[in-house]
Design the sequence.
């Protein structure tokens, strides 16, 4: 049984799930949701702008979720049904640029708007979502980790998830005593103890600067004697990105190497933001106007920098409603995957989906969105200047520099 299934079996979780499903059905089928939608529209300044975020779109959810991180995956069928539910809820699909103009009060809209966005540049999105969207004339924005496009590299969270799978199957023992607490939590999760692996991975990636993370992955792969790249999780290449752009779709920047910028210094930040914009523009010949923060995390400093570099907007993963007149560099977004629309018996639930896009759960106190606003790790200008002048040394795996696993023949 996987971690998510175990969590679902817990009595408290089960009760909450049943309540949520029953509430969704009551609100959806009684027509009450129109009242929720109207109230939300007024609270947002007269128009709702819903931005949806997706990561991977695959033919078979169950099969894909068995080998990779389930939380970013949706099946083609559920994806298409969600878009039908969105349209039925009264939203009109709009390009991001148009929605930003409505949010910044440069134009008005007769209907509520829904914007589709895809993060991370996965090839399955190109294969399965893009043809559908094009055939229906539905606009979307695709945020690319530009430096990884056209390479065989996978995203770091996919590489770690893959390596943990290998370590777990080999029954390696994590060296808990020698590790800093955040790494120890991750290693215990990897071995099936404590937190679910995807949650522990999120916490870890949200704590370790990019270079240290890469080094840890390479070291772990070397010690396991395995390549760090899983067979799954392929990203699109530039030819595919150019086809998306040529079809009139917008490509946005998502850093060069998928870096959580709140953990980095100013030189790296500028390099990742400007570099990703310039690389996509050079490869496609189209302007890049929109940015997506990795992990959805931003800071005051980052917002200023993105705004100064010629972008029109930046998206977070904060599941709050967008209000007219708010900062376009901290756009709120609802990130969806298969589970959002899965009913109690595993079937597609139009009631759950419509309550989700109408934000009913949050309005009745069932949802608890997380803020993406973080403290910049090296916050003061003096620290930033110092970092700019310092040559960056090769980081160690963790505070002790030790390996996270005892490999066969070693004592833990
Ligand atoms: Zn991402």
Sequence:
């Amino acid at each position: 049984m996987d971690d998510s299934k175990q969590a679902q079996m817990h009595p408290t979780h089960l009760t909450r799930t049943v309540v949520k499903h029953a509430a969704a059905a009551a609100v959806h089928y009684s027509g009450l949701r129109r009242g929720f939608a109207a109230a939300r529209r007024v609270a947002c300044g007269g128009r709702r702008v819903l931005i949806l975020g997706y990561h991977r779109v695959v033919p078979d959810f169950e099969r894909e979720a068995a080998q990779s991180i389930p939380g970013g995956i949706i099946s083609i069928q559920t994806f298409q049904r969600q878009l039908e539910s969105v349209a039925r809820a009264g939203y009109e699909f709009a390009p991001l640029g148009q929605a930003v103009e409505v949010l910044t009060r440069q134009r008005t809209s007769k209907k509520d708007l829904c914007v589709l966005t895809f993060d991370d540049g996965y090839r399955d999105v190109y294969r399965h979502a893009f043809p559908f969207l094009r055939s229906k004339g539905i606009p979307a924005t695709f945020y690319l980790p530009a430096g990884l496009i056209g390479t065989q590299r996978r995203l770091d969270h996919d590489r770690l998830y893959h390596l943990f799978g290998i370590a777990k199957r080999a029954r390696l023992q994590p060296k808990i005593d020698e590790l800093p607490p955040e790494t120890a939590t991750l290693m215990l999760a990897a071995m099936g103890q404590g937190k679910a692996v995807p949650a522990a991975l999120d916490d870890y990636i949200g704590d370790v600067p990019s270079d240290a993370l890469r080094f840890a992955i390479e070291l772990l792969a070397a010690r396991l004697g395995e390549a760090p790249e899983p067979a799954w999780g392929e990203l699109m290449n530039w030819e595919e990105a150019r086809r998306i752009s040529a079809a009139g779709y917008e490509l946005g920047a998502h850093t060069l190497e998928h870096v959580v910028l709140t953990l980095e210094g100013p030189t790296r930040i500028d390099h990742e933001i400007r570099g990703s914009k310039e690389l996509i523009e050079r490869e496609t010949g189209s302007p890049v106007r929109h940015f997506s923060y990795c992990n959805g995390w931003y800071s005051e400093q980052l917002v200023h920098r993105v705004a100064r570099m010629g972008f029109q907007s930046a998206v977070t993963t904060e599941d709050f409603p967008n209000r007219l007149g708010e900062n376009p560099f901290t756009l709120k977004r609802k990130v969806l995957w298969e589970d959002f629309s899965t009913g109690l018996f595993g079937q597609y639930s139009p009631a759950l989906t419509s309550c989700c896009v109408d934000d009913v759960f949050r309005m009745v106190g069932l949802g608890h969105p997380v803020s993406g606003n973080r403290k910049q790790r090296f916050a003061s200008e003096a620290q930033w200047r110092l970092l700019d002048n310092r040559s960056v040394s090769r980081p160690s795996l963790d505070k002790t520099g030790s390996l996270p696993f005892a490999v066969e023949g070693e004592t833990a």
About this structure: The chain is about 45% helix and 10% strand. Residues 3-151+238-363 form a domain with the TIM Barrel fold (CATH 3.20.20.370). The pocket of zinc ion is lined by residues 119-120, 254, 258, 294 (CB under 6 Å). The chain has two domains: 3-151+238-363, 156-224.
